Amino acid sequence: MMNTMHTTPTHPQYTDDCPEPCQPAQLPIGITKNSSINGDLIGHPPIIFDGDRSKADQFITQFRMLSIINNTHAVIINPMQRVVLALTYIRGPKVDDWVSQQYNALSTKVSGDANHAPTHANTDEVLWEDFTTEFKRAYSEILEELLARLGNLQMAGDEVEMYIATFENLTRRAECKRESGPMVHYFRQGLPTNLERSIMKRETIPDTIDEWQSAARQEEKRRRLMKVFKVELRGDNGKVQTDVIRLSRLSEEERARLMEEGRCFKCNGKGHRARDCPDKLEGESIRN
């Protein structure tokens, strides 16, 4: 005999102060009494999915993470209850009808109805597989949307690693050929103009995605170092000379090392002290 539907998932509730479904509170991280069997779920619940296609992958990933950390919990072990738990985190005008449809379909599969006999046990893993397939079919971003996001993607500040990670994620989801010309163009146009120009001035101009990403990382690393050092360029008959000036005081370790090696605190050269440094800029006052 097939099992009848019975669910005991932890899920968000309606309250008098919150007429709309509330975002679930963060669940405690750690093991509580009997949490591995029938207690509260542990970890952070997934985002509430309201139909925003750009958040579909994030929702599934977060729910899978919750499932893994609670992999011995009864509600996660049972595929039917796992589906119902996931449905409790899908709410809003754009998705309510879909949720109702999925719940009714699940109920028919497990319990049957007036016209259909049950087709699955509530322990059949295919119930979860069918749910994820239907979710992705309904809410995964279409190619045009992913390409639009790639076209509008811009690197924020000096967050080069975040930019690269987001770019790679969108490229993977769009199933684009990573090394194609358009993908290289998308990556370049999302870089800040001054960063792209710095890369283009290199002796060897990058050609592939990997080369552009490596160059972007190197340029950002150089710029971070420039926050510690000030570089001033001055022309002399068409020639450019670079003077590096320490902006912040040397650490005790740096001072000790330079003194031990007999080096100048200003240019790191040997044979003179900072006050006698031949590279001393006009008007600059340096203290040892």
Q: How would you explain this protein's 3D organization?
A:
This protein is mainly α. The protein has 3 domains: 1-140, no CATH class; 154-226; 230-276, no CATH class. It is built from 11 helices and 2 strands, in the order ααααααααααββα. The chain has a two-stranded antiparallel ribbon with strand order 1-2. The longest helix is centred in the last third of the chain and has 18 residues, at 209-226. It starts with 55 loop residues before the first helix and ends in a 28-residue tail after the last helix. The model is unreliable at 1-38, 231-248 and 281-288 (pLDDT under 50).
Report mean pLDDT, rounded to a whole number: 77
Strand order of the largest sheet: 1-2
Count of β-strands = 2
State the low-pLDDT regions, or none. Answer: 1-38, 231-248, 281-288
N- and C-termini, Cα separation: 88 Å
Main structural class: mainly alpha
Helix content: 40-55%
State the major sheet.
2 strands, antiparallel
Key terms for this structure?
single chain; 288 residues; mainly alpha; 3 domains; two-stranded antiparallel ribbon; 11 helices; 6% strand; elongated; disordered C terminus
Q: What does this entry show, briefly?
A:
With 288 residues, this protein is mostly helical. The protein is built from eleven helices and two strands, in the order H-H-H-H-H-H-H-H-H-H-E-E-H. The chain has three domains: 1-140, no CATH class; 154-226; 230-276, no CATH class.
Q: Layout of SSEs?
A:
Elements lengths: L55 H14 L4 H4 L1 H10 L7 H16 L14 H14 L3 H10 L7 H15 L6 H9 L3 H8 L8 H18 L2 E8 L2 E8 L5 H9 L28
